[in-house]
Amino acid sequence: MAASDVTGKSLYGCERGAAGIWRSSSADSLLVALVVLYPAALALVPSAPLIAIGVWWSSNTIAHHFIHRPFFASDRLNRLFSAALSLELGIPQRLWRDRHLSHHAVVRWRLRISVQLVSETALVLALWLALALRQPHFFLWTYAPGYLAGLALCFLQGYWEHAAGCATSNYGRIYNLLCFNDGFHAEHHADPSIHWTDLPHHRQSAAPTSRWPALLRWLELLERAVLRSPRLERFMLRVHTRAFRRLLPPLAGARRVAIVGGGLFPRTAIILRQLLPQAGLVILDADQQHLEMARSRLGPAAEYRHLHYRPGELLDCDLAVIPLCLAGDRGEVYRHPPAPAVLVHDWLWRGHGAGVVISLLLLKRLNLVRR
């Protein structure tokens, strides 16, 4: 499949109806501005972590969006911007583009020599040579480690975006705000020509999803590791039981408790079965396999519902429990509690209502909010 077949456009062709300097949307000016600001930030804070984050973040947002929808109406400006990105990221953008479009086309990538590839590669090598000669300490101990770490993060990003065997989306509001809708990965693969600003309007209800952004998706493996380690399971139950016990006395009269996302490791149901023996427990999970795992642990002690809870929806219960890995806007839960009382798992530094620390090691707390 040719590059134009994947994007629906020529390499840097002007889109019909485009006006002014921008090919598709003036929103791309924000991405261009960030490319200009990054060297200034690096000059103020010349550190390996900033370089690593810059290579990873820019490659998966600005450079990625530019591959599919070049920003400028002018071919010349697009080529100049591609050269600037090549210098800034240390990655010839024509090489990155060819590899990435092969990924979309599901064909084996083959190196194709072109004038653009040679010129961008020469620019990157010239920059490296200049840094090595004029700033050898910075090049060896700051730039090189940061650059290699950034490439490693890019590899992990690509791996975890497709670790389930297909493109997987994450709809976290903060992640998509900071990464310009990069979380809509299944939607992007369904139609790579969609502009990044329009991806949320093409959300697919049946798309494979993860509660975590790609770089944090290894936490799903950590959750499963608890199931294989009795010691980890006892630790998790102990610290969570202590937190629940401190917040439950005013809620002792609860008769119906809804536990969102409580299927994979049903620790909340295990704990509440002991602390609120009179309450009926309902486990809500979007993953049928997780529900079956909970059923194998709890049997008829709980009710099981296969559904995806969206923040803002009301739940038919006296008490709701919201997980740390909630998919959606957690703030909506705090602003509009889905039940008369809600226990919300959150990060240690996010206190709302009455709350207690679950574990400093896990960086977690449990917040109690009411309508």
How many H/I helices? Answer: 15
How many β-strand stretches?
7
Biggest sheet layout: 7 strands, mixed
In whole angstroms, how far apart are the ends?
55 Å
Radius of gyration: 24 Å
Strand content: 5-15%
Report the uncertain regions: 1-17
Overall number of structural domains: 2
Percent in helix: 40-55%
Spatial arrangement of strands, main beta sheet: 3-2-1-4-5-7-6
Q: What would you call the shape? A: elongated
Structural class: alpha/beta
pLDDT averaged residue by residue: 89
Describe the model.
- The chain is an alpha/beta fold and 371 residues long.
- It folds into two domains: 213 residues, no CATH class; 152 residues, 3-Layer(aba) Sandwich (Rossmann fold).
- Helices cover 49% and strands 11% of the residues.
- The protein is built from 15 helices and seven strands.
- The chain has a seven-stranded mixed β-sheet with strand order 3-2-1-4-5-7-6, covered by helices on one side.
- The longest helix has 26 residues.
- The protein is elongated.
- The termini are far apart.
- The N terminus is likely disordered.
Summary of the model, kept short:
The chain has helices at residues 3-7, 28-44, 48-60, 62-68, 75-89, 93-105, 115-134, 136-161, 173-178, 185-190, 218-228, 230-247, 267-275, 288-298, 330-335; strands spanning 256-260, 280-285, 303-306, 319-322, 341-347, 354-359, 364-370. It has 371 residues and is of the alpha/beta class.
